[in-house]
Design brief:
heterotrimer; A alpha+beta; B alpha/beta; C alpha/beta; B: alpha/beta; three-stranded antiparallel beta sheet; 15 helices; C: TIM Barrel; ten-stranded mixed beta sheet; 12 strands
Chain lengths: 98, 461, 346
């Protein structure tokens, strides 16, 4: 799936599987056998992502959740997404050409 | 005679008497002679009684549990915090008389939802409570899903920070995507899902706003909720058309889904339901089919409940009203009842408790006191009824209890029949239940008895 | 311990069968449905080098193997104690060869609610099974698979007495295969099941019969009162889920049948059971952090190692793929200071 021009698309690799437990989201990468535990705001963001909330709405929700300004919430959200990308939980899809 | 011995009831069942003392945790089926001995034994205080009735009389002579009482004291332990994200809804149920606009109802602001939760947690923390309970109502609460998706995460985060536990519950129509249903299954502790039966029943009674079928979506989501950790309660609205199919519905639900409870409720007649040709079922027919359905579901380990005949606890309030539930509307009003203001005002009731504003919960103490007095103890109709500590008079808005003692209506008769049925079933008297419900004279004698108190002024036995 | 699949076919159709997917795949692949004698010898070699002196034969229905008596003979020649997991509707030939062994040499675990019929065994099957059990006597151990909450166990007590089989009943919970294609209990139903089991254990104790638990039971499905009753009744309690080692016809060692497609290791000429178990435990490890309930993550029994958190297949079925897709403008990433890690679109 390609992204819109001027945009980056984050998606989850097929090998990544997850479950919601009482106090965390547990994510397992089948490729490496690595496990990742998400709590608090990160767990909330993961859940909202599975509900296909668009990016601007995620910022709004995160701002309300953590009582942050919109700018701070956005910075926090981007950091979360990039951390997950570095951990292999998210991948960046190729942007479109032209 | 002890006060609690006034709450010992007796109803005739065929040639026997069902003695029921909810505060003494006792139910017994005795013959006429034994019933007379029991009555005499209670009236005499401590005189010896025949050996056959001695254990019963001894238990009834003990003080028993204290009668449930209305709440008093400060507002420090609300029953729950209720949030109404919207009064809008995506269904056009043919019996719904909810007057709020379906698609244009206001939606609660995200910040208001967070304020309500903050105020609630502050109240709990101030009184040293460590358990929070948040319920969502509508219309259809997930019709304003973003509010719910935020409120749940916000409450969970706050609870964790404060070292508290928090439970989430919602009553819902189940019409949303699978992904959304999975999120609900993951995050909620209890879901009450309205599902009236197999496809032809569900689609007749609970179609979408445009008249389209909802069965496939709701059944799929019922399976998702069944497969998740959430406790699933299925709520079935029973009408004149579906009452004889209750056993079939029970068997289907037991096989297809994993509910902890199936709650059968009878239709409350509305102009809309009359227009659709639907009426409440005949009470006796409902009781007979309720009994059959309960046996089927019991085999699956599933509880069967009629909300006015829920024998599991004793209470003076049928619903959250009077139990300090704080229900926040989309406009910030804080009320004791989730129904519309126009509905309670029609009954001459005022369920408004206060407001939520920038300074937190502003609760009017007089309003709190007024609502707390809305208990069965104030309902003349219920004064001598064996169901008083379970039914508690039913819904304040939808059931008129300002009637003389014992002038029971259809809701009362239905409740009494189901209560007696359940008590007899608990005593293992299944064949008697069937015989009794099959004999009109027999069950009428039980159901229409105007006063059930064993030790009242009139001879009961 | 290791279970050896000797037959990939069965002539019954239990709705809860967790080997169904595996047997269907075998059938579709047109591979032989029964183990060749040469391969069976290799299995015996494996048991020898693993130091296992018990051979556990499973299927499908192992007694359907056309050379079943020969398998038994070869296993006995190696001094193995024979355990056969059977539906109990044996052919005359299979029954005769098991009857020829002493109770010390042989155990036949008979699944008493195995059936061709979707609603449970019919009288004809139970009559035949009863006749088999009479002949097997103390060689037989009764088993029952609980797959619905409206189950009844009381018929087992007179069956034990009447047939002279072992005074023990092995209870299993119908676990899901990974696809969920079989009928199985949901963990939410476990407490209801637990109450009924505890009540039955009390009655069974009165008849001198004890209960044993198969894998997948969990600590929290029983109240403290019921646990005490089970202990008093001499129940072999266990909250187990470990690699069984089910060795299938192709020579793969499976964690267990429900997880046949997910967790497996090849049986080579040099590996033993211990190394296979170690490999399968390592494969399962990421998922063991979770359990069949979301509360397993905070459960002290699980944290303390007393309970495994229920069936791993049930746990794995809780996991979902993450259908996540979010579009972020490249400008946003630049502004947030992540330009170096972004391939900017033109």
């Amino acid at each position: 799936m390609s992204g819109e021009a001027g945009a980056v698309v984050f998606s989850c690799p097929e090998a990544v599987r997850w479950v919601e437990d009482a106090d965390r989201v547990l994510v397992v990468d089948d490729r490496s056998g690595e496990t990742h535990t998400l709590r608090g705001a990160e767990a909330a963001v993961w859940g909202w992502l599975t509900l296909a909330y668009p990016y601007p709405k995620l910022v709004q929700l995160l701002a309300a959740l953590l009582v942050l300004s919109s700018a701070d919430a956005e910075q926090r959200l981007v950091a979360i997404l990039q951390d997950w990308r570095a951990a292999g939980l998210l991948q960046m899809l190729e942007p479109p050409h032209g | 005679m002890l006060t609690t011995q006034l709450d010992i009831f007796s109803v005739p069942v065929d040639d026997k008497f069902l003695i029921y003392a909810p505060l003494h945790n006792l139910a017994a089926l005795v013959d006429r002679k034994a019933a007379r001995h029991i009555r005499a034994g209670l009236q005499s205080g401590s005189d010896p009684v025949p050996a056959a009735v001695q254990p019963i009389v001894e238990q009834l002579r003990s003080p028993g549990a204290p009668a449930p009482a209305p709440r008093t004291g400060p507002l420090d332990d609300p029953f729950f915090l209720g949030l109404i994200p919207t009064r809008g809804c995506n269904l056009g149920c043919c019996y719904c008389d909810f007057a709020a606009p379906k698609q244009s109802s206001p939606v609660m602001d995200l910040s208001l939802a967070c304020q309500a939760l903050d105020a609630y947690f502050d109240l709990l923390r101030g009184s040293g409570r460590r358990r929070a309970e948040v319920h969502f109502f509508g219309g259809e609460p997930f019709y304003a899903e973003t509010v719910v998706h935020l409120a749940v995460e916000y409450a969970a985060l706050r609870a964790r920070e404060l070292g508290m536990a928090v439970r989430f519950e919602a009553t819902t129509n189940g019409v949303y995507s699978a992904a959304r249903c999975h999120w609900i299954a993951d995050h909620f502790d209890t879901i009450v899902l309205s599902l009236d039966g197999p496809a032809e029943i569900q689609d007749r009674q609970r179609p979408a706003l445009d008249g389209r079928s909802t069965f496939a979506v709701v059944a799929r989501n019922a399976k998702i909720l069944s497969g998740g950790s959430v406790e699933l309660i299925l709520r079935v609205c029973v009408t004149n058309e579906t009452v004889t199919r209750m056993p079939e519905i029970a068997r289907w639900m037991g096989r297809e889904f994993c509910p902890s409870t199936v709650c059968f409720e009878t239709l409350t007649a509305t102009p809309r339901s009359r227009g659709a040709g639907l009426t409440p079922p005949v009470p006796w027919e409902f009781a007979r089919n309720f009994s059959a359905a309960a046996r089927i579901l019991g085999d699956y380990g599933i509880e069967t409940v009629l909300s006015t005949a829920d024998l599991r606890t004793s209470r003076v309030n049928f619903c959250p009203v009077g139990r300090d539930a704080l229900i926040v509307s989309p406009d910030g009003a804080v009320e004791a009842c989730y129904l519309l203001q126009e509905d309670w005002e029609r009954r001459g009731l005022n369920m408004r408790l206060g407001r939520l504003d920038g300074h937190g919960l502003q609760i009017d103490p007089e309003a709190l006191w007024r609502v707390r007095r809305l208990t069965v103890l104030e309902k003349p109709l219920c004064a001598n009824c064996l169901c008083r500590y379970h039914c508690a008079g039913g819904c304040h808005v939808n059931h008129n209890t300002a009637l003389p003692v014992g002038q029971f209506d259809a809701v009362c008769i239905q409740t009494r029949l189901v209560t007696i049925t359940q008590l007899l079933n608990q005593l293992g008297q299944h064949r008697l239940v069937d015989e009794w419900l099959a004999d009109r004279a027999m069950w009428e004698a039980s159901a229409w008895q105007r006063t059930d108190r064993l030790c009242g002024e009139e001879m009961r036995v | 311990m290791a279970n050896l699949v000797v037959a990939g076919a069965c002539n019954l159709k239990c709705v809860y069968c967790f080997a169904g997917d595996h047997m269907r795949a075998l059938k579709d692949s047109a591979a032989p449905a029964f183990i060749a004698l040469e391969a069976f010898e290799a299995r015996l070699d494996f048991l020898d080098r693993s130091g296992i002196d018990e051979i556990r034969l499973i299927g499908g229905e192992p007694t359907l193997h056309p050379h079943f008596p020969e398998l038994i003979r070869r296993a006995r020649r190696r001094g193995k104690h024979i355990v056969v997991f059977s539906h109990g509707l044996l052919s005359a030939r299979a029954l005769a060869c098991l009857e020829a062994l002493s109770p010390d040499e042989c155990t036949v675990l008979v699944n008493t609610n195995a059936t061709r019929f979707p609603d449970g065994p019919k009288e004809e099957e139970q009559t035949r099974r009863r006749a088999t059990l009479r002949r097997l006597g103390p060689r037989a151990l009764l088993g029952f698979t609980i797959y619905r909450t409206d189950f009844r166990l009381d018929f087992l007590l007179p069956l034990v007495i009447e047939t002279g089989c072992r005074k023990s009943i092995r209870l299993g919970l119908a676990q899901p295969c990974l696809s969920g294609s079989n009928v199985h209990l949901h963990p939410k139903q476990y407490p209801v099941v637990g109450r009924k089991i505890a009540a039955f254990a009390r009655r069974a104790a009165g008849a001198g019969v004890k209960l044993e638990f198969d894998c997948g039971f969990v600590r929290c499905m029983f109240s403290e009162t019921d646990l005490a009753a089970l202990r008093e009744a001499g129940t072999d309690l266990g909250w187990r889920c470990n690699p069984i080692l089910d060795v299938d016809l192709s020579g793969q060692a499976l964690h267990c049948f429900p997880l046949a497609d997910k967790l497996q290791a090849p049986l080579t000429d040099s590996v033993d059971a211990a190394s296979l178990r170690t490999a399968l435990i390592a494969q399962a490890q990421p998922y063991r952090l979770a359990g069949i309930y979301k509360e397993c993550s905070t459960c002290p029994f699980k944290a303390g190692g007393e309970c495994m958190g229920g069936c791993l297949a049930g746990t794995l079925r809780r996991f979902r793929p993450a259908t996540i897709r979010v579009v972020v403008s490249a400008d946003t990433l630049v502004t947030a200071g992540h330009a170096s890690s972004v391939a900017l679109a033109g």
